[in-house]
Predict the 3D structure of the following.
Amino acid sequence: MTGQILQGSEEFRSGLPSSIAPTADNEPCAVRLDRVTRVYRVGQSEVAALRGVTLDVQQGTFAALKGRSGSGKTTLLNIIGGLDRPSSGEVFVYDQPLSTMSGTQLTDLRRHRIGFVFQSFALLPTFSAFENVELMLRIAGTRQDHTKLARQALQLVGLEPWAHHRPWELSGGQQQRVAIARAMATRPQLILADEPTGELDSITGRQIMALFRHIVVSQGTTLIMATHDPIVEEYADTIYELGDGKIQAVRHPVLPC
């Protein structure tokens, strides 16, 4: 698969806005959280999903949120993506405070600057791989050639030969790669991935991790992934260990050459 995903990366990269290409001298902060909490009310009780989380993720890096179920990983991703609001604290995405944004502004942010990848793939079953990717371009209101961009995104993940297959005709790993192509099609600056290998076997999961690493390195994209998959240690630049809604540790693994 590695050879396949390398095929389309230069052509895909050529369409990236210059403002998001990584630079050695100036690495902007993609995401910054300052003492973020999230408390849910359940009946007469309150449940704290996040308890004062502070972190910074630099542009063009692969950050992993690692922890057991219930540690706050998904809540944190949803807050970063503007799908949920913190109870207190502040979230900045490319220096923009999300607390000051209206619902329309948050929708625009997600359409144009953020790509989402979900564990369950979330593909439309009656649409082909190509149509699933192209639909995202239409929703985003992209003015460029939708057909060309969708094909480039599928080529990036090595799935151009399967462009006209529907999800039920694809393996789990192929479906996840379609979901990644869909997220990449609009050339977002930031990708948020929630347990993207959770439903995959270990070999396919490793292939997906390698693909994400390739996208970060070759496209300058920022990736924040929620996962409990131990193999993320071999691919992420920074790992935030979460437990009980708090960051318990921050590690920077030494990645293999």
Residues 16-25 have pLDDT under 50 and may be disordered. Residues 202-219 form the longest helix (18 residues). The beta strands are 29-42, 45-58, 62-66, 88-93, 96-97, 114-118, 190-194, 222-227, 238-243, 246-251.
